[in-house]
Design goal:
The protein is mainly beta. It contains no helices and 15 strands. It has one domain. A seven-stranded antiparallel β-sheet has the order 3-4-5-6-9-10-15, with no helix packed on it.
Length: 221
């Protein structure tokens, strides 16, 4: 886990083993194939990750010797300020494949895939005790992708495939990453004496690509 060490410069961090966490959950996978040429898949993941203990370490911005505005003491458990990052609670993936045309040693298939993820937090210091923690997270989102695939087999045992694919077919606007602006704990600048109140107040967002199309040409021999 990485901790800020300078109230006036959040780029200075210290990597420490500061506590304990428990991750519970389960995965469910299902396949239904009503015919030889038609199949459906379903994948679901549930995660319940929690920090059991995060101890204030000396030299971090939670240490009042470094940050005079910190209300905490070295050795105190501050797990309410932390959350396991990059771990959405629910994730779903649904797929369908239909081979709708066969001629000789060739076949043409249509593939659809939809994936959905719960809200995802992008840093550890986004616990329920940090105001505005949702500003350092990506809201739940779902994306639909599709592909037409033409497979060919040749007499010399070589194979070829042509894929016409599309990503984000519904042209959804969604963020690939979000950075919250602020601090997880009140911080006093040692040079100016200005105290920044805890919490995130705004976000910087990196947006993902919108709807895209392409062609793949594959030859195996």
């Amino acid at each position: 886990m990485f901790f800020n060490t300078n109230p006036s410069d959040t780029t200075v961090v210290l990597g420490l083993n500061a506590g304990k966490a428990t991750v519970r959950g389960f995965e469910l996978e299902a396949l239904w194939q009503p015919t030889e040429d038609l199949s459906f898949t379903f994948d679901y993941t549930y995660l319940d990750p929690k920090h059991d203990e995060v101890i204030v370490r000396a030299g971090t911005i939670f240490d009042p010797a470094v940050n005079t505005a910190s209300p905490y003491q070295v050795g105190q458990n501050i797990k309410n300020l932390f959350r396991v990052s990059y771990a959405p609670e629910n994730s779903v993936n649904v797929g369908a494949r239909w081979t709708f045309l066969k001629f000789g040693s060739n076949d043409l298939s249509a593939i659809l895939n939809y994936r959905w993820e719960d809200r995802t937090y992008f840093t550890e210091t986004t616990g329920d005790g940090v105001p505005g923690s949702d500003l350092y997270s990506r809201p739940d989102f779902g994306l639909l992708d599709g592909r037409l695939s033409w497979k060919m087999e040749f007499a010399n045992e070589s194979r070829a495939r042509v894929d016409l694919w599309g990503k984000n077919l519904t042209d959804k606007k969604w963020p690939t990453h979000i950075i919250g602006l602020g601090v997880p704990v009140a911080a006093q600048d040692p040079f100016t004496g200005v105290v920044t109140q805890p919490g995130y107040v705004a976000s910087a967002t990196a947006w993902a690509e919108r709807r895209t199309y392409g062609i793949n040409l594959v030859y195996e021999f």
